[in-house]
Amino acid sequence: MKLIATSYKIFFDDTILALPSLLSDLSLLINEIKANVGKIIVPVKVIEAIQKNMVSADKQVSDLARIAMKNLMKLQENDLADIRGERDDGNVMDTFISVFAKFKSSYRIALFSQNEKLARRVIALNKDEANSFPVLLIHFEDNLIVRWTTKFHNQECLPDDTKTTIINNKSVSFSGWDAIN
After folding, report:
1. What residues have CB less than 8 Å from 149, skipping those under 6 apart?
2. Spatial contact of 136 and 4, defined as CB atoms under 8 Å apart
3. What is the rounded CA–CA span in Å between residue 103 and residue 7?
4. What's the predicted TM-score (pTM) here?
5. Which of 81, 140, 148, 161 could pair with 75 as two cysteines, CB 3.0-4.6 Å apart?
6. Beta-strand relationship, 9-12 and 144-147
7. 42-85 pLDDT, tens digit each
8. Distance of alpha carbon 93 from its chain centroid, rounded?
9. What strands lie across the sheet with 9-12, from one edge to the other?
10. Is residue 135 within 8 Å of 160, Cβ to Cβ?
11. What percent of the chain has pLDDT over 90?
12. Looking at the DSSP assignment, which residues form a beta bridge with residue 138?
């Protein structure tokens, strides 16, 4: 976990934030991030998706969204969340793909996600891009941290432009995608 915390730009999506035991399961990573004054990047589109799901008529969807928001709030309280995005970002998946395509030649990136469709798209991006770092894909399976690539082995902003979103009635600033450092 220390290597990921010190060498990678770490991204969380809504599916990983919705894991009830996320903070305890990733306590080693979180402690390393804190020790290295790092952040976990959460795109603003992820927050918008969580907010939308919080008011879903489907109780399971709204319950998972509430867990995700609770975990995000805990990360923010510990100054570990770096919320990023731009006005013209597409949906959650397109945002991740465009940001990774833009920055994977400059940074090592790790994505924590339970979303199989997103994982497949990132794996395809990793195959398409030469001379860049592959995005490290991580998910939980049977209470273990697992790389997505093992599962699919044989299968096919402006820095000075600060924006605001609302999380649980609190205003939160976020930066754009011109840099992720």
Report:
1. 123, 137
2. yes
3. 14
4. 0.81
5. 81
6. unpaired
7. 999 999 999 999 999 999 999 999 999 999 999 999 999 999 99
8. 11
9. 81-84, 40-43, 9-12, 109-112, 136-141, 144-147
10. no
11. 52
12. 112, 147
